[in-house]
Amino acid sequence: MDADTASDAIPLRTRYVLFSLFSVSADFVYGAVFVTVLLGRGVEPWALGSMLAANIALGMVLEAPSGALGDRYGHRRLLCAGLAAWGVGFAVFGGAEGLPATVLGLALGVCGHSLQSGTLTAIVVNRIGDHARVRRVRRAVRWGQVASRGGSVLGAGAVLVGGTWARADTLVLAAGAALVVLAALTPLCLPADRRRPGRPVLAILRESAATITGRRFRPLVFLAVSTGAVMATLIMAWQPLLLAAHGEDVRRNGLVLLVMTLGLMAGAACSRFTDRLRPQVWGPVFALATGVPLVLLAFGWLPLVPGLVVAEFFLGVTGVVSAAWQQLMYADANRNTMFSAMAVVSGVTYAATQWCFGWLWELGGLPVAISVLVAVSAVAALLTPLSARFLPASVQVEARPGAPRSEGPQAVEPRPDDRPG
Prior knowledge:
By secondary structure, the chain is an all-alpha fold.
């Protein structure tokens, strides 16, 4: 069965959801246990931090070129190669007995993840036609985000269940095998996309970098910074807050993480009610709403676990609103490259927030660290609608070749009989 035959039996939206679900689930299994595996193999804490920092740096270096490779040689090809490298990296990491093989597995995994990032969404969005395009792109992004959050829940459940009878490194090995299976299914289940052999990779990179750093994308960059800062603050803060409130209990951590992930998934699903709203206004509102419960619970003015779930809910809504706005602004020809460039912006924000969080925590305590970084996120959120107001082109949807450019995401009236592309 090839991809065309699969399209007759299973809609592309369903295949998109399943690939998102299982790939994120495998990544979540790895993310839940990899630190435990490294410590169990004798890695010292200082070396652990250095290894993870090097991994993040490698991923950021590969991110933008990987997007250009997808736009140049085809997204399906890159998705297949990325999933295979990602899975092999997990398998090598899980089965390694010495430090060299462990480091090799880490490097292969981050290379594969960078190669495949953004390709699946690009395959789907680039096949959406002009009819009710804004609504259909938003819906496709929402389905992908909900599936990804569902994959996190599935991965958390797999760790909770599988951890009772399997070692942590065995779980990572199984996750790698699942990714390799997805890589093998990619050419069978997903349609081929148009390659652009006449465009050099460096030219695609230069064009996309100039676009992202231009005035038109300034509001989107502000929203990406706001979302990245508040998300990093939430991720860094929830475990210390839980430890201070209830003491050390790994099972409680797992249960709270599962509930938080369900809140994130619910927020992504409820983002459907924002489809008619203006993303340059409501994206920042939801980003601000993510930070408010963090500050309240940091000072004990809000119950801890409900506050974390509320913050995750609004983060889920913000993620979909931001991602849909980005996809509507990207041109089909450079979609994966611009996705990767924006991912670099988010990655730099995330890394800077983590670094600042540690120092602020050391100097002023946890509530001060949370409050300062939420304030930074709020400033970036407020700059989003202000800059969009003075830059009308920043809310004009990127037109497909031969189609007129829409005057804004909110200007397109969807039809009720619309079906996803």
